[in-house]
Each structure stands twice: as C-alpha cells, then as structure tokens.
Amino acid sequence: MTSIGIVGTGISGLNLALSLQQAGVDTTVYAEHAPEQMRRTRLPNTVARFHPTVARERALGVDHWSGSAANSAATHISILDTPIAFAGRLAAPFSGVDFRVYRPRLLEDYAERGGHVVFGPRTPEDVVAGIDAHDLTVIASGRESVNAFFPRDPNRSVHDAPQRIICSTLCRGVVPLEPRGASISIAPGVGEIFTFRFLSLHGLVTAVAFESVPGGPLEPITRASYAEDPAAFEALMIDLLRQYAPSVHERIDRAEFAVTGPTDVLQGAITPTVRRPYCEVAPGRFVMAVGDAFVANDPVGGQGANLASASAAVLADAISQDVAFDEWFCRSVARDMWAVAEPVTNFNNSLLLPPEPHVEAILGAANQHESVADAFCDKWAHPADMWRAIATPDRAAAFLAAAGAPAMPIAA
What we know:
This protein is an alpha/beta fold. It has helices spanning 11-22, 35-38, 51-60, 99-112, 124-129, 143-149, 219-223, 230-244, 246-249, 304-321, 327-351, 357-368, 370-378, 383-390, 393-402, and strands at residues 3-7, 26-31, 48-49, 71-79, 85-96, 116-119, 136-139, 165-172, 182-187, 191-200, 203-212, 258-259, 265-269, 273-274, 278-282, 285-289, 295-296.
C-alpha cells in the first residue's frame, strides 16, 4: 500500500493530505504545531482564497466558511493621481479567513477522519532519517527543509531580491465597501494597499495590507513597532492611507479604528523564487516540493494560497493514479505543476512592474465599461486566463472585444 509523508500544514500540505485521504491513500502529516498552538501564533498572512480554491475545499468536505460575511463579491481598483477608479463584480465570491482559523480546522478534519499526525519540528536530517517510512515524502512548508532540498532555479526565477516590503494588519473601524469586496489602491512607483473583509480569531475585521516598493514612502510602516507604540503605529497607518489610498482613508471611522492586537501585525519581505521541485535523498527515495516550497510569489497578486491549492490538487491526482514514485514520476509531476504555476508567476511578476500600454488600455476601458471591469476583476480568480488576456497587445485587444468594449487602438 502506498504511503505518503507530508511535512507541513500550510494550505498545500493540508489540501494534499485531505485529497489523498479521500482517495484512500495512506498518509502521515508532520505538523510542527498542534491546532491549539496554531491558534496562538502571530498572523501568518492575509490570504484571499478565490472560488476555484473554495470549490476544491467543498469537494473535500472542508468548506466551513461559504456563508461567512467575510466573503467578497467585488474588487475595487483605483490608481492614485489618475481617473482610474472602478469596481468589478465577481462571478463567485472569494473568502478571507485567518489561517489561524483555517489551518487548525482542516488539520482537525484530517485527524477526525482517521489521519495520522506526528507533532513536532522536523529538520532536514529528520526527513532523511525517516525517508524509508514512505514511498514519497512531500515538503509543503518549512524554510530549513526548502533550502536544504530545493535550490533556486535560476532559469525560472526572475528576481534575486524582494520587490516589495510588506506590512499586513487586522483592523476594526474600516467601513465596508459597496458593493462588498476588496480594494486595491495602486500608487505608481510607491506600492499597493489592499483591504478586504477577513474572518479572524476576533471575528469579522478588515485586513489592511501595505506593499511598499523598497526605499519608498510606504516602507516606514513595514519597520514601525506596533507593540512599542500602538497609537503612533495607527497614526502612521492613517497618514499613509490619506496620502496613498484616499478612498480607503475615507472609510476610516476615527472613533473606532484600531489594530486588533500585537500578534495581528505581519512585517517582512519575500523574494519571488521558483525552486527545483524534487531531490533524491537516498537511492530511489525522493522528496518533492509543493506550494510555496516550489513557487513562492510576492503577495501582490493574491495568488499564493490559490496556487498552493491548485498545485496540491495536481500532485494528489498524480499520486492517487500511480504506483511508483521514482524520478520519472517526480519529473512528470513537476512538469504538470509548473504548467499550472508558470502563468500565475508571469502574471504576478507583471504586477511588480509599471503596467504596459496595453494593460493601461484595459484599465482605462474598465473605468468606462462595467462589462470590462467585471471581466477583468473576475479573471483574478483565474490567473492563467488573466495572463492570456494581458500578455500581449493583440491578446489585450481580443479580451476587450470579448468583454464588450468598443474597438480601440492599443499601442504595442
């Protein structure tokens, strides 16, 4: 009987474990923390799970939040100092759930269904020592293991340094948008500011995330200490919103506005990286990367958790249909996972650069035509389709025509 070891309890590891469990494949999940410990950690991210991800969770029987008020049915996009300010309605809502709520619940689902969980840190040495316990070991998280087994792929990694410095917070006192949804406020040359409704340990709040161009005027919030001076930190947030996201600033209720606590601030940076996705650690024994262990994109596109879920689905399907987990298997699955990840990575990297003229044309058309705004915002949930739509001027023209915009010239 096939046995799969899964190291890590991020969205890719948990979705993979639940998928294989549903398919009748024997699995062991190696979890650094027990569920009650997960609930006490610092905010790990502010993740938006788009509806294809939610649909996969529904198929796994772990869609616990579809009826939540944290679901968002529209995206509002504005560009500072330009006329661009539009909202696009989504074909299906996306879900904002704190991973300190999401991860322990899915791990409990897996365990309650008979899944085997081993708690405690697992070093690369532990993985190698236990490699014979499983036909295949999958690394789904853990910086130390990722660096040990999966070197950076220079042919697929465009960046060698962070392109944004990040500060994500959970806040009260932000008036909801109408129609209910997320906001993306773009300050050219400065960075981006995101807000959306978020189901946290404190109930329903608003996630406010700053993405600063390194060295830019948003960067001070990524270094400021909330714990040392909460009032000064919140005042800095409000001042930056006033300058660089005025439409968000207008929704601040000054009497109610507050960060929900010192563990609800996340600061740091990610170097967008594609890694070599498998490694032979003993003769005929392989470890394989999935999710962020394989492809880590900057959060600017909101694709991290969704790509992790999609990649886990590809890997689960391959494992459940195969009987040998050799290099041929690893190479084949790596090709299939990259086919999913490549357009996501291309789209995400494009967001870290000033928009090309044909993308500016799409944004201008979305500002004038509701059908274009709806089509453009909805493609965020389908990044491969989005990349096909914006990759070239000809594709942008075809997208606009399909979305019902009048014919217009698009500069190459």
